[in-house]
Specification:
404 residues, alpha/beta, eight-stranded parallel β-barrel, five-stranded mixed sheet, 39% helix, elongated, binds 2-carboxyarabinitol-1,5-diphosphate, binds magnesium ion
Length: 404
């Protein structure tokens, strides 16, 4: 059976897709490589498996995607999409097109969306972050170091009262930010409303609390309203499980609060080297949607993530992008004081470093854990080794011993 796929091939190394959105994929197939590439371009733009009489030649030349680069050896494909295919400011629609049906095509063995290049007019149709990295640093009075945050542990289990007490203890010990864990929303033992009330009773303006509002959209709004009306400064959303429509909805309500993006479940689509989509793509759409701080990986912690990729993502998040504010990268997952020098060397200082077990697992308790982290940061700032610094800093000494 003849497919219409090959007409989507416009191989031309010199093609300059200025007013197109470009998607870069890697493809593995046991079928004809070029035909499958054409099929991907067809299915993700205007086509289907057979020619249809309702599609005119004029329509095809105006709206079809074009495969302008295809290398069978590496599997690399570049597809250009006319911008008029996309509704401005609509992330779900973008994903339904360029990261939708194509993964299910029988001929596709593996397909990974590696990167997206978007023209300024499309990028500017999104609001981007409200505060951005600089706005977050401003809340914390612009320290000349990475921001230090903590996730309360255990993930779930503390009552609202215990949760608030522990938050108070570690905020007084110095952390800039405390956050709910990704699976803590509202439970019988720790109801959202009570948690907000108890924490807002003592939280100072320069401290950030990220309340996890993740829920069905109407409940997310109620929770966001409560945080805003209680004087809070940050909303946390599990951006993958809640979905980008939910993120865009909360951003559209213009609370003026920081939006912290937790990426729980991202690895279902990012972890395979050959299939799914990359964390870079998620980072780009998170910034479009208005996420102010985004988990991007640690290199040295418990979660998978390669140094070069994480550095590229963090550089992207902090760089100029058609006037959208930068998103602050967040390193989190299996971090503890001993790792701070490597973290700062590899990922720099414009970053939020988040410690869960690495603070609350300190042998002398959570406040001592906070002090150990700050001592590690101070050691780096004054070019001292952790071992030397630990000789006069007891909490750091205990941490080095405990986690060595
Ligand atoms: C870290 C964490 C974060 C992960 C998310 C956890 O706790 O709270 O959710 O960092 O991973 O639940 O594992 P620990 P990522 O500090 O105790 O490891 O940032 O890679 O999305
Ligand atoms: Mg967590």
């Amino acid at each position: 059976m003849e497919t219409p796929y090959k007409k989507y091939l416009h191989l031309n190394e010199h093609f300059e897709p200025e007013e197109y959105l470009v998607a870069i994929y890697s493809l593995e197939t046991d079928s004809d490589f070029l035909e499958t590439a054409g099929g991907i371009a067809a299915e993700s733009s205007i086509g289907t498996w057979t020619a249809v009489g309702s599609e005119s030649e004029e329509m095809f030349s105006r709206l079809s995607a074009r495969v302008f680069f295809a290398d069978e050896k590496s599997g690399l494909l570049k597809i250009a999409y006319p911008l008029t295919l996309f509704e401005p400011g609509n992330i779900p629609q973008l994903l339904s097109s360029i990261a939708g049906n194509i993964y299910g095509l029988k001929e596709v063995k593996n397909l990974k969306l590696l990167d997206l290049e978007m023209p300024g007019s499309y990028v500017r149709s999104f609001p981007g972050p409200c505060l951005g990295a600089d706005g977050i640093y401003e809340i914390a009075n612009n320290p000349e170091r990475p921001l230090i945050g903590s996730i309360l542990k255990p993930k779930e289990g503390l009552s609202a009262e215990e949760h608030a007490n522990l938050t108070k203890e570690i905020m007084e010990a110095g952390v800039d930010l405390v956050k709910d864990d990704e699976n803590l929303t509202s439970t019988v033992f720790n109801p959202f409303d009570e948690r907000v009330k108890r924490i807002m009773a003592f939280k100072e303006k320069s401290k950030i609390y990220a309340f996890n509002i993740t829920a069905p959209a109407q409940i997310m709004k109620e929770r966001a309203d409560l945080v805003a009306n209680s004087g809070g400064n940050c909303l946390m959303i599990d951006i993958i499980t809640a979905g980008f429509a939910a993120v865009q909805y909360i951003r559209s309500l213009n609370y003026g609060l920081m939006l912290h993006g937790h990426r729980a479940m991202h690895a279902t689509i990012t972890k395979s080297r050959s299939h799914g989509l990359s964390m870079m793509v998620l980072a780009k759409i998170s910034r479009l949607a208005g996420i102010d701080s985004l988990h991007t990986g640690t290199v040295v912690g418990k979660m998978e993530g390669e140094q070069q990729e994480i550095k590229e993502i963090n550089n992207f998040l902090l760089s100029d992008w058609y006037g959208l504010k930068p998103t602050l990268p967040v390193a989190s997952g299996g971090l503890y004081p001993n790792l701070v020098p490597n973290l700062m060397r590899i990922l720099g200082e414009k970053i939020l470093l988040n410690f869960g077990g690495g603070i609350h697992g300190h042998p002398e308790g959570s406040a001592a854990g906070v002090r150990a982290v700050f001592q590690a940061v101070e050691a780096v700032k004054c070019n001292s080794s952790l071992c030397d610094y630990a000789q006069t800093h007891e909490e750091l000494r205990l941490a080095l011993h405990h986690w060595n």
